[in-house]
From TrEMBL:
It comes from Phaeocystis antarctica. It is found in: Nucleus, Nuclear pore complex. Keywords: mRNA transport, Nuclear pore complex, Nucleus, Protein transport, Repeat, Translocation, Transport, WD repeat. Transmembrane segments: none annotated. This is Protein SEC13 homolog. SUPFAM superfamilies: WD40 repeat-like.
Amino acid sequence: MEKIPTAHEDLIHDVQLDYYGKRLATCSSDRTVKVYDVMEGGERKQVADLKGHDGPVWQVAWAHPKFGTLLASCSYDRQIFVWKEHTPGQWGQVYQCREHEGSVNSIAWCPVEHGLCLACASSDGRVSVLTRQADDSWTVKRFNAHQIGCNAVSWAPAFPAGAVLSAASPTGAALQPMRLVTGGCDNLVKIWRYAEDRDDWVEESSPGQGDTPWGG
C-alpha cells in the first residue's frame, strides 16, 4: 500500500486526480487546497498551496483540460473558488462566488460538450450553476432544490448511454439537454433539466417516478 504524505494540518475531505492522472488535488479542514505532481516512479511533489477559504474545504473538482488547468473548490464558508494555473506553479483565483447563505457541500463540472459550467450544492437548499462566457466573465443561475439543505450534485452524460461507442464519432450522436441530479437533507433525490425556452432549471422527476436513470 502506497501512502502519500501531505502538509495538511487537519482532516482531508476530498482528493481528486486530474484528467490525465498526473495532478492530485486535496482539500482539508485546515482551509487549504494543495496540488501535487504525480510523477512516474511514485514520486510526489507539492506544486501549489492554495489559500483563501475561511472554513473547512469540502470538495475539489478539476475542469476538463480543454479549458486550461482549472480547479474548483467549495467550503463551509459559503464560497466557491475557481483557481487557474497561469504558468507552471503559479496559481491564482479567476472567480469567486459568494451567492450562497450556507455551507457549499458539493461541486461538479458539467460534461465538456456543454461548455464550462460548475454546479454547486449548498446547505441553504439551493443549487447554483456557474457558467463561463466567451468574454471570460461568469454568470450564475440559482434554483431552490431541497427545503432543508442540498448535500450532493452530479451531471448526466452529454450523450445517451452507448451512443458514443456505437457512433462513428461523438458528433454522430445527438447532444442531450443538460441534466442534474441532487441529493438533500430531506431524504430526496431529484433530477433537474435545463429548459432553454424558460432559461431555467425545472424538476424532471424523482427516482421511482418512471424515469430511466443514467449510467456509464
